[in-house]
Amino acid sequence: MHSSPGLHEAAGPGLAEECSTLGGCRTGTAKVTNAYDLPARRVIHTVGPKYALKYHTAAENALSHCYRACLEVLIEHGLQSIAMGCIYTEAKNYPREPAAHVAIRTVRRFLEKHKDKIAAVVFCTSTASDTEIYKRLLPLYFPRDKHEEEIAIAKLPADVGDENGETTIDERKIRITAIPAASVAFPRPLSTSEDVSANNLALTMRRKNSHIDSLLDPSFMCLSKDPDMRRKEQWEKVAQAQSGWSCAKWLGLGDLGGPPLSAAEEYSLHARYLARANALNLTEIAEMKIVYRGGVDNEGRPVMVVVGAHFLLRCLDLERFVLYVVKEFEPLIQKPYTIVYFHSAAALEMQPDLGWMKRLQQILGRKHKRNLHAIYVLHPTLGLKATIFALQLLVDAEVWRKVVYVERLLQLFRYVPREQLTIPDFVFQHDLEVNGGRGLVVDPRTKFITNRTTSAPR
After folding, report:
1. What does the pLDDT read at residue 351?
2. CRAL-TRIO domain location, by residue (predicted)?
3. How far is it, in rounded angstroms, from Cα 343 to Cα 400?
4. In the prediction, which pLDDT does 366 show?
């Protein structure tokens, strides 16, 4: 399914000749040709949408149309199986995981209606990242047993589309509200130029408001809260949190107010930031070495390293730094992972407030919270421990209770092997100054660690 240079080369020149007679193909539609030299009966062609953050919902629905149009063409031509490639491409800036959600849920919705007409749908991937994404998401939409079904209920995003798999926006839905009670209005006198029949006039006079109200079922209208009213209440809560007196603001902890985000809102927020991050060149943030990938810990979980002393708040664009963090963490948060934080010599630098940390957690999304195994903090200070305690109380206890304090490098290496970490020289020097008298000697030049040997007194 869908055209590509490799497909045309394998099919032979006949496919290109027939495609030239189709008159093009609009985004979201599908057309069919013969397969020629390919081991298939037909080839279905479609055009995926370009992705732009501003038109996120439109791109999702256009991608959903692509998959649904291909399945409709499949049934129209009496075919029962299809192999579907990834219609979304990096060239069109479409984030891979959100697009995979759209693809799988659209196929799921279509099969619910036409399960007797389709025997098999095969998702074909060409990269390791796509394969990993589909292996993880397919059991959520197609659980094979009761256990997978229970996991799917907990992990599925809140927005799984409508009956066709398309994204729905409450604010754009047509709402039905009760007709307000109105006083009886007397018809105005008719001018001679108005041509109204006597029957129509009598019908108008006899019409009662009660008759119209009887056609509107109040129980139907009250099934869900008015989205406009819900959004207004949310804005009022945000405005109240920002304008009102806040103990956290008074103490300099940042803005910790505002309503909590739902799962769908966090998913959408993360997708928007990830799309922006993939479209920008963030090399100046990478060169600061604040956040970088390590190896794996003792149990094979990937490690992300954070260096506190490199976080120079006075010369750092925080918004671009957040985008870089989202981009770097994205491959890790899909499965269990570990964070190693070097607080060595970081107490001298200004640090962001708790409100910023809360916002960062919301942007990273719930996968970060669920898959984070531990945060190993090396050389913690009393001030840092107090900050982490405040994070547990005011931001997110589930995440910040995973902090493990590590006083020396040798202790850290019990959790993460030395060869799996790239450690700055000043961390070794700090560890030598703090722990050198406790039986641990670290050479900052060779980074070789030994136990201090003491001679027995004579």
Report:
1. 66
2. 280-427
3. 16
4. 85
**Alpha carbon distance, N-terminus to C-terminus of the chain:** 85
| 12: CATH | 3.40.220.10
Residue 236, pLDDT > 70, answer no
| 220 falls within a domain | no
Domain boundary among 100, 132, 155: 155
Mean pLDDT along residues 45-66: 87
Q: Which two tokens stand for residue 154?
A: 């907990």
Across the chain, mean pLDDT equals 78
Residues 317 and 352: beta-carbon distance below 8 Å: no
Q: Is the pTM of this model over 0.70?
A: no
Distant-in-sequence, close-in-space partners of 130: CB < 8 Å, separation ≥ 6: 86, 96, 100
Tell whether 293 is covered by a domain: yes
Does 241 map to a domain?
Answer: no
Question: Coil, helix or strand for 260?
Answer: coil
**Domain residue limits at 47:** 5-155
Using the 3D structure, point to which of 100, 126, 155 is the last residue of a domain.
155
* Structural domain contains residue 250: no
CATH number, domain of 281, equals: 3.40.525.10
- Whether the CB-CB separation of 326 and 364 falls below 8 Å is answered with yes
Distance CA 117, CA 111 (A): 9
- Can you read off the two tokens belonging to residue 158? 């809140």
pLDDT digit string, tens, across residues 296-349: 999 999 999 999 888 887 778 888 999 999 999 998 888 899 999 999 877 655
Largest CA distance in the chain: 130
Task: Render pLDDT for 240-252 as a digit per residue (tens, 0 to 9).
Answer: 655 544 554 544 4
Specify the residue for token string 């107490």.
Answer: 347
Distance CA 406, CA 411 (A): 6
Q: How far is CA 30 from the centre of its chain?
A: 28
150 and 284 in a single domain? The answer is no
